[in-house]
Amino acid sequence: MQAPIKTDEEFSKLFETASQMRRPEQYRFMLMLSIKLGMRPKEIALMDSRWVIGRELRIPLGSSKGKGCRTLYLSPEMLEAYHSHMRGRSGVVFLNEKDQPMKARAISDAFQRLYALSNEQGSCYSGRRTLATNLVDRNVPLPVVQKVLGHSHLSTTARYISVTPRMIEAALFA
User: Fold this and answer.
1) Which residues of 62-74 are buried (b: 16+ CB within 10 A; e: fewer)?
2) Residue 138, in any domain of the structure
C-alpha cells in the first residue's frame, strides 16, 4: 500500500504533536525534511552537518537510494529549524537517546510514532508523496520533480504522484 497523501491541516496536526514530543526540535526538522524536501528515511538518517553549505543541502553519492548525488535548498524556516535542532553541534544530524546515529529504520519508526500519536494515517513516505503530488499540482515540470526526489527514471516519479481534484478540474476546463 502506498503512503497516503496528506493535507496541510493534517501536517499541521503532526507539527503540533511534534511540539509535544520529548525532543521537539528533532521531530520538527525531521518532518520538514520529509514534507518540504521529500527526503527518504535513509537520507535523513545519514544526514551530516557537512551536507549543509549555506542554503544548500548536498546529499552525497552513496547516501541515497539513487545512483547520484543531488542538491536541495533549505528555506529560511528550515535553516532556523536545523540550527535550533543542532544547537551548535556538528556531525550526524539525527541522534538517538544514547547520542548514537539513528538508522533509517529508527527514522521510519519515529514517523510511525508521530502519525500514531496524531491519530493520522501515514508513514515516512507520506511527506515525499505529498510533495511530489503538490509540485505537479502547481505545474512544476515532471523532470524537476524527478530531480527533487532523486529518481533515475520518470516512471518512478510518476508512481509517487496522485491525482488531485484540482488537477482534474484544470484538465477539464483548461
Assistant:
1) ebbebeeebebeb
2) no
Residue 36 lies in a domain: yes
Rounded Cα distance between 19 and 23, Å, is: 8
Query: Does the residue 105 lie in any domain?
Result: yes
Cβ-proximal residues to 121 (8 Å cutoff; 6+ apart), any chain: 4, 115
Taking only the tens of pLDDT, the chain with its 174 residues reads: 789 999 999 999 999 999 999 999 999 999 999 999 999 999 999 999 999 999 999 999 888 886 778 999 999 999 999 999 999 999 999 999 999 999 999 999 999 999 999 999 999 999 999 999 999 999 999 999 999 999 999 999 999 999 988 899 989 997
